[in-house]
Amino acid sequence: MLRQDIFAVTDPERIRDLIRTHAWATLISHVPDRGMTVSHLPVLVADGGPGDALVLTGHLARTDAEEHQLGAHDVVLVFQGPHGYLSPVWYEATPHVPTWNFVVAHVHGRPVVLGPEHTYGVLTDTVDHFEGRFPEPWRLERVDAYAHRIAAAVTGFTLTAARVTAKAKLSQDESDEVVHRVVAALTADQPYAHPQLARAMRDSRRQQ
């Protein structure tokens, strides 16, 4: 990922928040004699990392874990926040060309594969994380016997981040007037409307 200081995200809590709110991750491995292997999975932020290190937990199908040779080598987890196309028409200023605003984090590290009991704990935590938005959350214990049976085909893991690269390209290099016009376009009734991206741009402007 292209490194640009103006777009770099270094605040650990901001990175954790990105992962918490966009927990559907892409797992990328380079497996010897097989090449690149890619999977998609939910990943959570774990508490209590050593020295405030970022610690993640996740799970994927056992066959996927075997394809990645999970735990045998380093991997990258990619978390993608709000993103979208920006038309130069919205800027009402020249010169501008089409571009893409986005928020993303890359977490590098080597997973530690968990045993059945801890894997079931990851499954429980994952359900609780996503169900927590409902007024009456569903709990895995409601189908405990069934859940334990299918959990045998799941591999859980933890990953302590060895390196994190995060970027929020949100028009920080543009004037307040231009950002205001782009935000207005993103919240209007038009083909590339994206209120969540507009909110991220407003938040970024306040943090500058």
TrEMBL record:
It comes from the Bacteria. Signal peptide: none annotated. Gene3D superfamilies: Electron Transport, Fmn-binding Protein, Chain A (2.30.110.10). This is FMN-binding negative transcriptional regulator. It comes from Streptomyces corynorhini.
